[in-house]
Amino acid sequence: MLTFLKADLRNDRHTSDLLHLLNSYALDPMGGGEALSPYCRQHLISELQQRERTVHAFLLYQDHVAAAFSICIEGFSTFACKPLLNIHDFAVHPDFRGRQLGKHLMSQISQYAEQHGFCKLTLEVLEGNHPAQALYRSQGFAGYELNPAMGGAIVMQKKF
User: Fold this and answer.
1) Are strands 121-123 and 2-6 parallel, antiparallel or unpaired?
2) How far is residue 115's CA from residue 95's CA, in Å, rounded to a whole number?
3) Nearest Cα to 60, choosing from 121, 9, 114, 103?
4) Model confidence over 75-84: pLDDT tens digits?
5) What does the pLDDT look like over 52-88, one tens digit per residue?
6) CA dihedral (142, 25, 88, 92) positive or negative
7) According to the model, what pLDDT value does residue 56 have?
8) Distance separating alpha carbons of residues 147 and 3, to the nearest angstrom
């Protein structure tokens, strides 16, 4: 039995499951290969709670066991003049992979976004994460470009 829900960031079970799944993702090569720092473990939930109007965390349970999660953050499309939802974290726990749970989770997030008036979903994916890319394409995601002559968008970052 699959259960999808929007996590309540004030519910101890939900927050514990989010931290567990996020740490599992962080340990994966696609998540960087290192556990969450003690600082992150101690402060993440309170930081998310401070942003709960614009943070949407989702959990997917299989037979009452936390199996997959996503943390999404609202943004705004100036061209559409509407909110967008960025999928910041998205992962299926290794014990549950190969069961189409990622597809189910993405489908539920898409429905949620559409029902709540978001104009689009956005996400980043590593070039070498071919399984995730295949999942995202199967769910209607494509590279971002405004004008084919200018090419697709690239993701850049500057750390502090």
Assistant:
1) unpaired
2) 31
3) 103
4) 999 999 999 9
5) 999 999 999 999 999 999 999 999 999 999 999 999 9
6) positive
7) 98
8) 40
> What gap in Å lies between CA 37 and CA 22, rounded to an integer?
12
Mean pLDDT of the 7-11 span: 98
Give the chain's largest Cα–Cα span. 50
Placement of tokens 């514990």 in the chain: 16
Residue from 17, 12, 37, 15 nearest 26 by CA: 37
d(CA 138, CA 131): 11
Q: How far apart are CA 100 and CA 22, in angstroms?
A: 19
Question: Could you tell me whether strands 82-92 and 121-123 are parallel, antiparallel, or unpaired per DSSP bridges?
Answer: parallel
CA-to-CA separations, 42 to 38, 39, 84, 90, 143, in angstroms, rounded: 6, 5, 29, 21, 36
**95-129 pLDDT tens trace:** 999 999 999 999 999 999 999 999 999 999 999 99
Q: Find all residues with CB under 8 Å of 36, minimum gap 6, and list them.
A: 19, 22, 23, 26, 44
Amino acid residing at 26 = A
Phi-psi region of 64 (alpha: psi -120 to 50; beta: other; left: phi over 0): left
